[in-house]
Every structure is written in structure tokens, then in C-alpha cells.
Fold this protein.
Amino acid sequence: MSTLSWVLAGVVIYTAVVLAADRRGLLPDAISVSGPLLTIHTKRGRRFLTRLARPKRFWRAIGNVGVGAALVIMVGTFVLLIYQSAQIIESPPMESTLQSPQNVLVIPGVNDFLPLSVAPEIVFGLLVGMVVHEGGHGLLCRVEDIEIDSMGVALLAFLPVGAFVEPDEDSVDAAARGPRTRMYAAGILNNLIITVLAFALLFGPVVGAIAVADGASVGGVYPNSAAADADIAAGDQIVMIDDQPVDSNAALDDALAAAGSPTVSATLADGTETTVEQRPLVTRMIADSPFATGESPQLTTDDTITAVAGTAVQTNAEIHAAAADADSPVVEIAAEDGETGETKRLTGPVGVLGSVAPEGPLSTTPAEAGNRLILTQVAGERTVTFGDLETALDDTTVGETIEVVAYADGEADTYTIELAEHPEEPTGTYIGITDATGLSGIGVDSFGIQPYPASTYLSILGGEIADGVAVVLLFLLILPFAAVVDPTLNYNFAGFVDGNMAFYEAVGPLAALGDGGVFLLANLLFWTGWININLALFNCIPAFPLDGGHILRTSTEAIVSRLPTTAKPTLTRVVTTGVGLMMLISLVLMVFGPRLLN
């Protein structure tokens, strides 16, 4: 049985037991049961909220700030959901793991993006978010003289899924629109405040006390690769190749290039030494590569390249040299089949595979925009990899005329183009090629590890990777789904967990807490901030029963009250119901659209 099946079975058993106890009157009156949901009600705390609410003018001013923030987020949320829905309808994306049923549930160990190892931190962040959210509602109830019937917490089985403040309905109806709006926006504002505090502490002292450990971080190892044969595994740190120290992921490539031999000695952080016999494993194939199309045989992932243009090869550098030194750009590649062990022989042009960019220099030639080309020579220089292309353009200038030799559908053509200014690099030149990849779309790794982007994630956590608060928050929000949003990252980030803790170390004064203490503090702050910003955004969706729906109603009432119409209540209901339905449809499309429309 899957983890989700076990969880569902446990919820069913729990529900049956709790319902049976409720029917027999074994539960206290303060506990209410509705299926698997259990709510605990209390009237305690109202006196404390009443005392806390005494500087009413101050709290009303804060509440007005919350209303402004909520309205801005509500408008943004509405526009974003409508835009996303239109995009899904116009061009339905393929279903991703984000839409899997278990990933809709915020349950660590069941949700693929929420590992069980950070369940305590996630539950802590959820409890903080719910308490401050409902506490905000309760406080503003007392500020605006709205009576509170009860307060409490809601549990799904043993998991806290919500807190609540039950204001007296008659008291709410009797309150003016301004007080009601401030009361509904208070929870959202509190979540935003907690987000700011949590991330401010994370960006500053906590992330400042964490550094990337020296070495190349092994996030994963390709099956059937040289590293796998050498018993290198995920979580290892490679600190030396032969006698050359390795202090980063980039340094590993430099050390392998400097080794001068396909057989190298790799030293791990724990002192283990192992011999790696490199061999070029195919790890990725672009669909329209000449070596992945046409009649069999075709080059596929898990194959191992053994020779290029008749020259035996064992490393990426040897593949590059053999292709560059061949008499013709069209070469034969020999490869060992990853499944059968048989030798494949394929022939095709080897160069930089890419698309002709619209409005670029190449698009003015017979190579029209969107055409896929294999560039084998640029400005008189042989181009096998993307690095060769950059080197060929290094000494060129904007306005200079050069020749480009490229293959399309197996036929070679020479294009004469006038170089333009690079759209992203003002000092560089541009030939008008996009989505470029070397070696005709063949991804090869002769060592066989997938590096973990430890420094990238630490930069995001420290708020250093982007300018502007909004952009930083966006990066933080997508961290748990990083590999889905940007497949080049390969790994999601759920905090400092067993899979990546070896790649970091505690430094500075906080190092006295030990690695475990610093990482725990970072995880608590990350998940508390992440959950609170998500609670604020979710509650700003303008649909009932969310806070955004209530704020939409009071705001609509305020606008409609100024219109010359006698059907004010009807018009208010039409607007709020219409917006709510649009939001519901948008959410359904975002979750189920890829499955329903494809």
C-alpha cells in the first residue's frame, strides 16, 4: 500500500472511533464532530483579547493598513487566477506532479514536496499561522465591539487544519461596514506580519550562520554511470580528484579536465577514496537531434558512447576533440546499448543544435524563424559545443558580416549574416539562435553525478538571488517545487533535511548551537514564513467563505450604496456570487484542467 492509502485508512478508522464515542456521549460538550473533522470550542481568552484591544484607535489604524494590503492582494489574486485559467483553456499544459491528488493535501510524507522529516516544522508553522490569523479576527472583534461566541481549533484526525473565532452573527450584522472589513482583514495582516518577521530573521542572522561546505555536492547519481560503479552515492561530498582539491561543483569539472586521464581517484568528505573509470553516458537526448530521429538504431539515454569518427573516447573532452578534428562535420558515433550491450553505429552532423530566433540575423536568411539548425561552423571556427560558439563570436563586432555553416534535414547550407547586438549582453554579438545545445542535442556525462545546487538555494534563502521583495518572495514560494518550475535545478528544496544537510555547515556565533540546531532554526523560520504567506494569499481569494469573500462583499456594498439604484442588495449578491464562481472555476481549472482538457 502507498503512504496515501495508509493515511486514508487511518483517517477512516479514526473517524469511526470518534463518531462512535460522540454517539455514546463520551466526548465533552466543547468538542464537536463532523466526519473526520473535530473542533474544540472554548470561551477562554475573550477577557485577554478585551484587555489587549483597549488602545482602539491604534488597532483601527493598523486594521486600515490590513484592509489596504488585502485589497491589493485580492485584485492581484483575481487577475492572476483569471489569466492562468485563460492560459490553461487556450493551451492546456501537460499534467504535472503538482496536480497529483496527494499533492493537493498539505500532509508531510503524503505530499511529494513535503518530506516527513520536516513535519514538526511544518506543523509548527501551520499552528502559528492559524493562531495569529484567528487571533487577529478576535482582537478586531473586541476593538469594534463585536461579541465573540467562542474560539477554538479544528483537527483533521490528529492534524491541526484550522483555528477559528466565532463572532456573534447578530453583532456582526449590526456593525458598520468599516469595522467588519477591518475585522476580516486582520487575520490576513497578521499572517503577512509573521511572514515578514520569519523571513527577516531567516535572511539575516540565521542564513548568515550557514555556509556551503567545501566539495562538489552529489545530489544524485545516474544509474549505470561511472560514479555509480565507484559506489559514489547521493549525499556524498567530493573534495578531491587525484591530488587536486575540489571546493565547489564548478571546481569538479575543472579538476576532471585537469586530470589528463579517464581514470581518476575521487576522495569524499568522509575520507573514502574510490577509483572512477570514466565513460560517456548519454543522460539526455533532444527530440529533434539527428541521432534520436529517423530509422533505427537511435541513440537513447543510458547508452554509452564508445567512439566518435573512429576514435575511441572515454570523456566529454575526448568526444569534443574527436568531433572537432574529424574531416567532416558529419561523423559516425558508436555507442553501447544500455539494455542489450550491443554496439550501435549512427551517422549525422555534430554541432550546436538550436532554433532560429524571430527578428534575429539568421531569420533574414532562407533559414526562417523557428527552423531547427545544427551549426557546425561560425565565422570560420568549428562549433561542436555551445562554448565553441561563444569562442567563435568573441572577437567579432556588431555589424560585422560572417558566414555560418548549418545543417537542416541532413543538408548543409552556408548563410551570410550581419551580426547584431546581443539582446542580453550589450558588449556581445548575436547571430539569432535560441535554445542552443551542443553536440547536436546529446547530453553526455562521463563522470555520472547530478550536482546539488546548494549555493543557489542558500542564496535564495538569504534573499540575495534577486532584487525586490516581491521577486524574493516568489523564489521562496516555489522552493518546495523548484525542480517542477525549473527542471535544470533537478531538486526541490524543503529545508535542511537528511538529503542535503551534508552540503552545509554552521558558521559564526550561532555555530554554538551545532549544525542540527542552526538547521532546525532555519527550517522553522522557512516553513513558518512559507505557510503564513500562503495562508494570507489563499484567504485573499475573493470567494466565500474566505476572508477575501467577506471583504469583497463589504467593499461591493460600499460602492453599490453610492449608485442610483433601488436593487442594492440584489446587485451586491450578483457581483459577489459572480466573482466567487469565477474564482471557483479558476481553482478547479488550475488543479484539474490539465487532466480534463488534454
About this structure: The radius of gyration is 30 Å.
